[in-house]
Amino acid sequence: MDTPQYHLQDTKNNIKRVPMLVAMAKGKCARCRKGNLFKGPFTSNTNEVCSSCGLTIERNPGYFYTSMFVSYAMNVAEIATLWIATSVLSGDSNDPWLYLSVIIPGLLLMAPFNNRYSKVIQVYWLDPGLKYRPELADTFSKERKEDESELKEAVSEP
Ligand SMILES: [Zn+2]
């Protein structure tokens, strides 16, 4: 986690810090924790750039290839959980069809969640080049607003 000194600096500059798990749950940008990673609340399609800090979200071609491995690990954990839950709730049943009829629909139901959060886990935990920079929040959106107002002025001038 962050060093206490960094914390002090930030409170001095009055920069609002967002806790990592909150930002992850909400699918926020890993750099500013303010802009959205995804195009909507239930989709795993990512935005091109962060609306708040301007980070290119798919940082290079095939960037989210890594999230496939995360998704695979999540699936394994879910299979184990469903397997144990079925075993406990059925009184240690020996029927393989019972297990399959719980695990397969369970995984299909979890697929959208896995797609979305495997990407979140990748950008937060598996990308050493991405660090939390709360001071960058709103820099891009502000710049864009300024550009737009300049453009409007230029257009409205005779
Ligand atoms: Zn951002």
Radius of gyration: 21 Å
* Through-space gap between termini: 55 Å
Bound molecule kinds, no repeats: zinc ion
Question: How many β-strand runs?
Answer: 0
Which series of helices and strands comes N to C? Answer: HHHHH
Main sheet properties: none
Provide the helix percentage: 55-70%
**What is the residue-averaged pLDDT?**
90
Given the helix and strand composition, which structural class is it?
mainly alpha
Shape verdict: elongated
Taken as a percent bin, the fraction of beta residues is: under 5%
Number of helices: 5
Q: What is the total number of structural domains?
A: 1
Low-confidence regions = 1-5
Provide a quick synopsis of the model.
With 158 residues, this protein is mainly α. The chain is built from five helices and no strands.
